[in-house]
From TrEMBL:
PANTHER family from the UniProt entry: CARBOXYLESTERASE (PTHR11559)
InterPro entries the record matches: AB_hydrolase_fold, CarbesteraseB, Carboxylesterase_B_AS, Lipase_GDXG_HIS_AS, Type-B_Carboxylest/Lipase
Domain of life: Bacteria
Keywords: Hydrolase
Pfam families recorded: COesterase
Family stated for the protein in its record: Belongs to the type-B carboxylesterase/lipase family.
The EC number(s) this enzyme carries: 3.1.1.-
Coiled coil: none
Protein name: Carboxylic ester hydrolase
GO-annotated molecular function: hydrolase activity
Ranges for domain Carboxylesterase type B: 7-463
Stretches for region Disordered: 44-72
Gene3D superfamilies: alpha/beta hydrolase
Length: 479
């Protein structure tokens, strides 16, 4: 009986014990790379040596060092998870599969969001039961965050968090068959920072052949910092820590101190002579690239990869509504955020008012944030991919308005996730402070969206027409 409840999978790295339930089998905290400790926190991911005996895959993984994030009255714990759960071996994956057998099922690899500083596989939103129910092997990935993951510095490779995801994809190629997955039919998908990482992988030569399809939910193809912008963040971090901006100096610093300085880095002025801040001051970390992914897709696997991409209609509401700033925003607040992201903020604000004459300063501020962080970079990525891929691009727009926070949250950033994972009935998503608000969400929408994601992973077709750059129309979901 115990063997039935706790199946064991033999992999090339060693045996793993998991759990079996009504949704299939679950294997947790499987390392895809060696633990990043000491100087290794700033090195490329190293191969894991494997293990002898049977590894316990029934307990969740430690998480990357990360701060606690507060969204006022809105309960975002299902999105962020438990925060920093200490433990060195956190470069791990969780696998939810119908069965660890010889069948070759579609594989979906999920990369979480969290502004490049928070998030993990332990977040309740990433429950893969519905994917396993529908014949998909779901893999969720932890990667390095914050200073170890994304601070650019002398002597260390850039974008170490992205290199982690790349290493996880190599692991999936080599190991997922043992869990009932098809290594030749992998879809990588992610949300927010995770989607932005996927956009970069589409332009990364080393990613060739590691995935057949990609889904970018509320990410950006233009969200990377330039090396000059990254240098400003590094200089500020070194000054806050009182050390030189080198990998040797940073290797001596504890993760606790890295987290302690984060408030001093958030909100830095990253505008330069030729670029504005792609993250509008909300995060001091992003990918660091000389060319934005939307402008360098031909360098990677993008032309041979199907892409499903889209945003929510009120993305910026997440950053304003929970703190009461949607109603309290003034023209000065609107101009301040515009100054971060537009070369001529006065002209930009005048154009916003002309386009939406009845909109409040808060609504326009939300629009600026949503377009800067996600909308503009998504449009650029969709256009660029459609041009080089020959009809492999599908665009969506998610418009279901959450009734959370007295009905004001709306179609904010992250609201689509429970629909994609088909978990809208979970009680912890409801109530006035839950992500979906009081009452019942439209279950039919979750059924349709989840089915579209599964169909895309199986065939490359989510069920609607491909994107045409000459007539850029998006499939409306829940609007």
């Amino acid at each position: 009986m115990s063997q039935y409840i706790m199946p064991v999978v033999e992999t090339p790295m060693g045996a793993v014990k998991g759990l079996r339930d009504g949704s299939g089998e679950l294997y947790r905290a499987i390392p895809y790379a060696a633990a990043p400790t000491g100087l290794g926190r700033f090195a490329p991911p190293a191969p894991h040596p494997g293990w002898s005996g049977v590894r316990d895959g029934t307990q969740p993984s430690p998480t990357a060092p990360q701060p606690t994030r507060d969204f006022g009255r809105l309960d975002m714990t299902p999105y962020f998870g438990p925060g920093w759960v200490r433990g060195e071996e956190y470069l791990t994956v969780d696998i939810r599969t119908p069965a660890a057998d010889a069948r070759k099922r579609p594989v979906m690899v999920f990369v979480h969001g969290g502004g490049f500083v928070t998030g993990s596989t332990r977040a309740a939103l990433y429950d893969g039961s519905a994917f396993a129910r529908d014949g998909v092997v779901l893999v969720t990935v932890n990667y390095r965050l914050g200073v170890p993951g994304f601070l650019d510095m002398e002597g260390a490779p850039a974008n170490r968090g992205l290199l982690d995801v790349l290493a996880a994809l190599v692991w999936v190629r080599d190991m997922v068959a043992a869990f009932g997955g098809d290594p030749d039919n992998v879809t990588i998908f992610g949300q927010s920072a995770g989607a932005t990482i996927i956009g970069a992988l589409l332009a990364t030569p080393e990613a060739n052949g590691l995935f057949r399809r990609a889904i970018m939910q509320s990410g950006s193809g233009t969200g990377a910092f330039t090396p000059e912008q990254a240098l400003r963040v590094t200089a500020a971090a070194a000054a806050a820590l009182g050390v030189e901006p080198t990998v040797e100096a940073f290797a001596a610093i504890t993760d606790e101190r890295f987290l302690a300085i984060l408030p001093t880095l958030t909100g830095l002025d990253l505008r330069t002579d030729n670029v504005t801040d792609p993250l509008a001051g909300l995060s001091p970390f992003s990918l660091v690239l000389p060319v934005q992914p939307a402008d360098s897709l031909a360098a990677g696997p993008a032309a041979d990869v199907d892409l499903l991409i889209g945003t929510n209609t009120e993305e910026g509401h997440l950053y304003l509504v929970p703190a009461g700033n949607l109603e309290s925003s003034t023209e000065a607040d609107l101009l301040a955020v515009a100054a971060r992201v537009y070369a001529d903020p006065e002209i930009a604000v005048a154009a916003l008012h002309a386009a939406r004459p009845g909109a409040t300063p808060g609504e326009l501020r939300s629009s600026v944030l949503g377009n800067t962080l996600f909308g503009g970079g998504t449009a650029r990525m969709a256009q660029a991919h459609a041009r080089i891929s020959g009809g492999r691009t599908h665009l969506y727009s998610f418009g279901y308005r959450s009734t959370a926070l007295d009905g004001r949250l709306g179609a904010a950033h992250t609201v689509e996730l429970p629909f994609v994972f088909d978990i809208v009935d979970k009680p912890w998503l409801h109530g006035d402070t839950g992500l979906l608000g009081p009452g019942h969400a439209p279950v039919g929408l979750a059924t349709r969206m989840h089915a579209a994601w599964v169909a895309f992973a199986e065939t490359g077709d989510p069920g609607w027409a491909t994107y045409d750059p000459q007539q850029p129309v998006a499939q409306i979901l829940g609007g």
